[in-house]
Structures are given as structure tokens and as C-alpha cells.
Amino acid sequence: MPNEAFRLLSRGGATFDKSKTESLLFTKQKETLPKQQEATKALDGHIPVELDFFKYAQGGQGKRKLTEEPSRSEKRRKVKSEDEQEEDPVASKKGPEVVHRVSAKGSNVPPHIDSFQSLQASGVPSRIFANLGSSGYKTPTSVQAYCIPILLQGRDLAAISPTGTGKTLAYLLPIFSKLAAPASTSVGAGVRAVIVVPTRELAHQIHNECLKLAQGRKWKIVLFSKATANAISQNGARDKVDVIISTPLRLVAALQEGILELNNVRHLVLDEADRILDPEFMPQIQEIVAACSHSTLQKALFSATLPAGVEKMAMEMLNDPVRVVVGLKDTPLPLISQSLTYVADDPSKLPSLLSYLAQPYNPPVLIFTSTQTRATSLAEELVLNSIPNVDCLHAGLTKKEREDAVSRMRKGESWVMVTTEVMARGMDFKGVREVINYDFPTNVQSYVHRIGRTGRAGREGKAVTFFTDDDAPYLKMIANVLLQSGSTVPDWIIKLPKPSKLKRRQMGKTKRPDIINPARYVGRRDSIKKRDMVLGSKRRKTKPGTEPEAFQNTGS
Ligand SMILES: Nc1ncnc2c1ncn2[C@@H]1O[C@H](COP(=O)(O)OP(=O)(O)OP(=O)(O)O)[C@@H](O)[C@H]1O
């Protein structure tokens, strides 16, 4: 079904408006979910300190109070060797369980900040402070508190911090603080900062963040696309560009066509670093890094996940880096309540999802499938089952369709968004309260990023993962993530054997049918066949002397 027609069908003319009584349907859910109710009650202005990841951001009180000794890390730093410092994790505790800690490793790690104001001494322009305030950023999150001073000192950095904890601002603020005069007003300036991300949607989102932070300054910040690449190739326009946000392929195409030079770039950020550094993008990244040939180039990598192998490769790219880890590596925030739901086999998933959506739920819900065709097919099924305001977004759609789908999501017009891995990383839709993994995630990182579309900026979230018999060998890997982040897992799953290395590599390669509900097509296929036979027979009757099809070209 064409996307537009499908959208219209799914819309039903209604939009989600929390002020309307229809939304009460969704808020009732909490009565049936005691655990969630407890957490929700807590969020109504009384969030328990140990769960308030952003409390630190709301006045610097929460985390300080929970730290065993606030100044201990600073004292320790003085007695450690000058070359190799490891900052004590600053941890907030929930009983014996550590829910939040920060470690910063490297030589001469700059001290972290407690407030944005303390950056004034580091030369952050007052305009940037004003823009921080108008964007609603009052106090730094942990990743910002640690990474901003490091980047302001020109150091290379690898930062790992859970989804939705504000990594974008952690690298944008130092870039804009250091950018100085716009390239258009200073001769020979040109592109000085490049941010590379894996998807067009994420590039778009980061571009918007840049515009907010750079408001009032005349910097030219370009969201790189075919059109903008053509535009900057005209009449020296490229020398007037200050910042570029791009996907690797698009940037490399421009470098190869000779319409872009990166030899003046001082800041290179690889966001979603583990995805950007995977073999699919690696050749392009090497080309980009080689093109950024300025002697004072600063490289920074950010992600919520960084598997050991990729981290080793990443650290080799950096020069005397600092490594910052917020929370437990590759672990979602405890704000996301996670569960695993057994659904036997693929055909059983649809009825399970429909019964889930027949209960009160918190829109918008994000549903992840493994392929574009399955995403389209599932969205169609939901529409045909009268689920209101269903939408679909995947990389197979046109640029316009993708942009429109993101915009509907931002406006709250989509209640149920069916998507693929394209939306798993970086996308920040503040209102997403529930994520459903309809198809099992492709690996642990995919799980962490997918469910990280909820529980952002200190909000509560819920993640449900369907698993079939085919997914069972990989269940333990996901269950370990649940356990690590404080969710409960049934005993029998904990007792499952650890999958072999070979088996782990097969995760994500499970073959699933393109069509979510083949039963719907059985009747349709039969009637198409019958119709074709009738038409064929009519054609033959109207052409006297024509041999029946079976005898044609047989020589008989
Ligand atoms: N200091 C702050 N105070 C309040 N809100 C903040 C602050 N910094 C960022 N945010 C908000 O937190 C949300 C998540 O930020 P961001 O998208 O940068 O997270 P992220 O860590 O990059 O997540 P992901 O790993 O999914 O890419 C955004 O809505 C952002 O506006």
C-alpha cells in the first residue's frame, strides 16, 4: 500500500491530544500495572533520588547527596600518577545496587563541572549560555559534566553513556564554544566541524539541535545532502560553511567528487560510534579521517554502546584520549521497565500484539521489526485491524515520506509507529513511553538502542520484547542486559546455557516471512488465480483458431 494512502487510512482523522478525554483511556493503564504505577507516582514530582538520572541536571543536588564523599574523587586525583588517572566512579546507590556511576580514564583528566555557569571561566561565549537557557538546559547531565571540559581542552575523547542522557549537547557545546567567527566573515576559514552519524533522520535531528544552540550567530550549519552538496559546490560557497552534519556515504561522495575539502576541520565527532565504525562504514570513515588533515584536529566518539572489539579500534584512532563511561557499559537505564514475552512462533506474534494494543497503552508506541517489508506489512495489518493512527517508517521510503513520518511522530499524530533498525539509534522523541520489539533484536547493542527510544531525559519508559522458539538461543544474551539494569527475568531464562560464539554470530540472521499475516493473502491469491483463468479463457474464446495455451510452442 503506498505510504500516503496507508497513512490516510490509518489516521482516521484523529490526532492525539493529551488534553482530550480520549487520552484518559491510556492513563488508566497504570491502575493495572502496580510496578509501573509506583514508578509513575514517583515521577509525579516525587521521583526517588536513586532513580532520577537527571536529578543531577536539575540542580546538582541529587547526585552530590548520593555520592559517598563529594570531593573524594578530586582528592584521589591528586595522589594518582600524573600519566594515568582514573577518576573514582561517582555512584548513586539503590540499596546495594549501583544505578549510576561515571568513570573518566586517561592522562591528566580535566575536572568535571557541576554547573554550566562554571564554564564561563573556560571562555564559553555568553550567547551560547543564553541559548542553553532558552533550550531548557539548566544543569549538565553526567555525560555533559565530564565530557564538556575534556573537549574544551582540545582532548580526544571516547564517551559511552546510556541512551537519552544528553550526549548530543556534550559535543555540540564545546564545538560552538570554540568555533569563533563565522567562516563567511574570516578569510580562509571553511568547514571547521564535522559530525558523522549513521542515518539521515539522526543527521536532521542533530542539525535542529545545532540551530537551537547557535541561534543568534551567523555560522553556516549544513545538513549534508545531495542538494546541499550541489549548493556548496557553487562559487566558493563551501568556504562559507562552518559545520557539516552528514552520513558517511554522503560525505565521502562529496570528497570524491572534489566538491568538499576537510583540511581545515578542527572537530570531528563520530556519533553512534560503534555503528559508524562497523565494517559497513569503516572504509568511508577512514577516508573522512584521512581528509581531516589539520594538525589540531580533535576527534570525539560517542555512543551508548561500544563492544570491546570496536572500542579497541576506536581508541587506536584517538590521540592521548580520555575515556568516559557513564553508568554500566552497554546497559539501559533502570528507568525503562523491561520484559520478555513468549509468543511461540512468528504467526502468533500478530494476535499477541493485537491483544496488547487492545489493552490501554501509552501512545506513541514504537514497534521494531527486522525488515522494511515486514514493517510495511505489520503496519497494514494494524490498520486493517482498526488500530488508530498507525504509521510506518523505514529506509525504503522516499526522503519526503521519511521526513513526513518523523514530523507526524514529533507532532504526536502517530500513536503506533512501526519501524526498523533505522529508528533504533539516536532518535529523540521525548514522548515515546513504550517500545515493542516485535522481531527479536539483531544483537545486544540493537536491543539497548531500540529500547533506548523510551525512558529519555529522565522520563519513565516500558519495553516489551517478543520471543519465539527460534529466538530462544539468543534469549540469554538479552536477559543478561535486563538483569544488569535491574529488571527481573524468570528463573528458567537465567538457567539457559550461554550461547556459543558461533551461535552468537547467527543472532539477527533469523529468516522471517515478508508477510506478517499470510492467511490474509491465501484467499486473495486464489481469487487472483481464478480471475486470471477466467480472463485467459475469455481471450482464447475471442480469438478463434488460437491453440489452447498448453499446446502453444510445443510443436504438437
Ligand atoms: N542538560 C540537560 N538538561 C535537560 N535535558 C537535557 C539536557 N541535555 C539533554 N537533554 C535532553 O535529553 C534528551 C536526550 O538527549 P540526546 O538525544 O542528546 O541523548 P543521547 O544520549 O544522545 O541519546 P542516544 O544514545 O539515544 O543518541 C533530549 O531531549 C535533550 O533535549
UniProtKB/TrEMBL annotation:
GO cellular component terms, semicolon-separated: cytosol
Pfam families named among the record's database cross-references: DEAD, Helicase_C
Stretches the record annotates as Disordered: 60-98, 522-556
InterPro entries from the UniProt entry: DDX52/Rok1_DEADc, DEAD/DEAH_box_helicase_dom, DEAD_box_RNA_helicase, Helicase_ATP-bd, Helicase_C-like, P-loop_NTPase, RNA-helicase_DEAD-box_CS
Entry similarity comment: Belongs to the DEAD box helicase family. DDX52/ROK1 subfamily.
Basic and acidic residues bias: start-end ranges: 523-533
Reactions it catalyzes: ATP + H2O = ADP + phosphate + H(+)
SMART domains found in the cross-reference section: DEXDc (SM00487), HELICc (SM00490)
Domain of life: Eukaryota
Helicase C-terminal domain segment(s): 349-497
SUPFAM superfamilies: P-loop containing nucleoside triphosphate hydrolases
EC class name: hydrolase
GO biological process: maturation of SSU-rRNA
UniProt cross-references to PROSITE patterns, sorted A to Z: DEAD_ATP_HELICASE (PS00039), HELICASE_ATP_BIND_1 (PS51192), HELICASE_CTER (PS51194)
Domain Helicase ATP-binding: 148-324
Name of this chain's protein: RNA helicase
Swiss-Prot/TrEMBL keywords: ATP-binding, Helicase, Hydrolase, Nucleotide-binding, RNA-binding
Single Gene Ontology MF annotation: RNA binding
EC number(s) stated in the UniProt entry for this protein: 3.6.4.13
